[in-house]
Structures are given as C-alpha cells and as structure tokens.
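A quick aside before the break. I want you to see a complete sequence-to-structure record at least once, exactly as it would be stored in a machine-readable document. Don't worry about memorizing anything.
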Amino acid sequence: MKRMFKVRHLILAIMCLLYFIAYIDRVNISVAAPFISKEFGLTPTELGVVFSAFAFPYAALQIVGGWCADKFGPRLVLAVLSIIWAIATLLCGFAWSLTSLLVFRFVLGIGEGGAFPTATRAFTFWLPATERGFAQGITHSFARLGGAVTPPIVIGIVALYGWRESFIALGAVSLLWTALYVWFFRNTPSEHKWVTQAELKEIGVDTARMKSTSKGKTPWAEMIRKMWLVTFVDFCYGWSLWVFLTWLPSYLKDARGFDLKHLAIFASLPLLAGVVGDTLGGVVSDAIYKRTGNLKIARRAMLVLGLGGSLVFILPVVGTKDPMMAVALLSASFFFLELTNAVLWSLPMDIAGAYAGTAGGMMNTGFGVAGMISPIVFGFLIQTTGSYQVPFAVSAILLVIGIIGSLFIDPTRKVGDPPVVPKIAIPVR
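That is the input. The structure line, written in tokens, reads:
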C-alpha cells in the first residue's frame, strides 16, 4: 500500500510559511506608511526612498545568498538570514527618524536577500522535476496571501495599539518560524530520518552527485549567458509587482478616497487574486509540460499569457472613474501578472540544476533592481505630475518589453550541456 504521508510535502509546507511570513515583513511598511509618513512628516519621494531601502541589499545579495546555499546548504544559510530579517522587523518598531527607518529597512533587505534563492536550492534536492512548478506556485501564492492579509493585520494592530507594535509582533513571529525550520529541515532527503526509500525513489534526485557538482567551480560565464534574459524579464515583471506591493494602499487612499476601514479590505483584493494566479501558473505550466513534453512551450506560454493579461487590465485603471471598477481591474491585472511568477522561479531549476541557488539569485536580481528603482520613480512621478497616470504608463511599457523577451527564453539550454555547434551544409559535387 502506497503511503500518503510524504516528508517532502511537510518541507513544502514549512517553505510556504517562510514565503507567507517574509512577505508580511516585506510589505507591512506600505500599510503602515500613511501613519509613519504623518508622524515623521515624509514627502511622497521620501516615502518612496523608504520603500526602496529594502531593495538595494535585497538585489545585491540575491546571487551571494544563492551561492552560499549551493556551497554551505540551505539549512544554515536560511536560518541565519531569517534571524537577521526578524530582528530588523522588530527594530522598525523602534525607529525614531527617517534615517533610522532607512537603516532598519536596509537590514531587512539583507536578511531577505538570499531567502528565496536558498529555498529554490532546497527544492532542487527535495522535489522531482514534475512537482517544481507547483512548488514555486504554491509557495509564492502564500507570499501573495501574506501580502493580502497584511492590510487587515497591520491596520488592526495599528488601531488597537499603534504602528510600532505591528512591527514588533511580526518580528516575533519570524523568530518562531526560524526555530521550526532549524528543528525540522535537512539539506537533502537522505539526511532526514523520516524519509523512506520509497520516497527517495519518487524524488529521483541523485543528491550525492548534485552535492559534488555544486561544490565544484561555479560556471559563472555559462550561467550569465543562459540566465540573463530570464533576469531581464524578471525585472519587467518585478517593476509592476513592486508598484502593487508598495504603492497600492496609498493609491487607494489618496486617488480613490477609501477610508481606513475599506482600505483594509480593498487593498487585499488584488493580492488575493495574485494568490490564485501564483498557484495556477505553476500548475498549468507543469500540466503543459507533462502533456506535451515540450519545456519551451510550458514555460513561454505562461509568461506571455501572464504579462499580456496584466497589460490588458492595467491600461484602463487610471481612466475609470469608479473606485470599485479600479479595484476590479487592479485585481485582474495582478492575477495575470502572478501567472508568471512560478514559471520565472522554475527556470533556474530547469536551466541550472545543482547551481539553482546561484541561478535563482541571478534571476531574482532583476526583481531586486526593479525594487530599487520602481518605488522611487513611482513616487517622484506622482509628486511631479500630481497623478498616477504616467507611473502606470511606465509599468505598461515594461510589460510589453517583458512579453517580447519571454518569446526568446529557452529552458532546454541547460548549464553543463555541451555547446551547440551549427551544422554547415557541404554541397555535393
């Protein structure tokens, strides 16, 4: 009789909690922003700088964090990173000025910088190839769920106690997750005492060979050649995602006139739509691959559909006069945008294998760089133009560019494969 209980599914559940908590700690600043801005007297541009302070170390440490996970194992690396971001979240509750808030958000970016590449490295060893799209989809769904529940959670704590207490409470939850992770997680299935031989066979990953490979010299030049386009498309995707994560509550409050009670509800709806999009994107991409055996089609189709659908629904947002219609359009746009997320995170595993941590960091650097630029540019354009029309137009342009780039991504060109030598036809005399 085949056992239903799988240790790898518990590992996946713990990683879902990681993504959930990490995103709450990441986006809580956007929900608390109106209160922080009032207390510290921040302009929209200064607020944009606060949003972006997280993204600078986040982008810089993507590759470093992934490389460390490849070399030293995700158990140690992720434990250290989660402690750093938990403490940084706690410290945000004690900020006394713009400068201190910038410093604490910067440290938070250090902690979260290598977290998702490290988790990707863990999935490479713990999951068979046919489950990786789903794993990336469901974990990022929990990330979006974290973002979706952040407004009611943070606003609820703010209403009862204050904005500072919201950061302190969330930082404590992050420390509890770290303890759970260190107790249960192991770097490979073969190291976990609960994993049976039958499950090891189902996973089908030669962990000894992959560990030996990852400890060797990292093929940087080859990975750059095969991952740069994925990184670029991730930048185009990330630009719009950062707009949703940082400016959505302020947009709904300032441009659409939602009060505090309604803001907690309607700021969550687009992110809840993203929860569905994340899971569906990974599931559909895996299903296409199983049905066709064509990895190019499975990955490219979801990228084009997701970015294209997001573009279609983001364009009319500014023009509509109905606040509820604006929320509906934003929700649809974010749903389609998130169809691409699981695919983008699957590509480092598809292409880099044992170096998936490093490749995942390389890919997510695009997202991090977008986070460095997007919130500041968005805030500057709002301040200088007095409207949201131009900032949303910039997002639309980058979605178009991302669609074009997606058509040329090739997940079948794997790191370590011999170079393709073009065949030269020799005329027969």
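Two observations worth writing down. The chain has one domain: 7-188+220-406. Residues 424-429 have pLDDT under 50 and may be disordered. We'll return to this after the break.
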